[in-house]
Backbone:
């Protein structure tokens, strides 16, 4: 480090007659350097501005995506809740009526097939006998 004198105890650096730890001495000595030229400062500022705009754009898209996903999940949850709610009396009655009608139709079809099979079997027996 230019301008710093190591102390004999090796516990820091002496700058202008004062003892400083190594980290503080580095900071003090680096402060004395010339600032960047104006065009370099302008480039650095523009680069920072572009980075900041890119970050803002990314996070804006990210927030929109997260809110959209949250909305979809919320809608999915509300549908699930609607399906899980108990039936009202009118819904229960219509469901029971529908089940009874379907059961009677299935029973009638099976019964008629059984009757046809029995009749066909009786005719075969009469022909043989």
Residues:
């Amino acid at each position: 480090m230019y301008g710093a004198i190591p102390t004999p105890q090796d516990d820091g650096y002496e700058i202008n007659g004062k003892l400083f730890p190594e980290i503080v001495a580095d900071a003090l000595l680096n402060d004395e350097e010339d600032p960047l030229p104006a065009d370099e400062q302008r480039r650095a500022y523009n680069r920072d501005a572009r980075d900041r705009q890119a970050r803002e754009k990314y996070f804006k898209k990210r927030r929109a995506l997260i809110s959209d996903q949250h909305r979809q999940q919320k809608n999915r949850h509300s549908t699930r809740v609607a399906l899980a709610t108990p039936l009202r009396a009118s819904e229960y009655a219509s469901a029971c009526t529908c089940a009874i009608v379907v059961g009677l139709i299935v029973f009638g079809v099976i019964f008629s097939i059984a009757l046809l099979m029995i009749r066909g079997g009786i005719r075969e027996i009469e022909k043989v006998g």
Notes: Residues 89-129 form one domain.
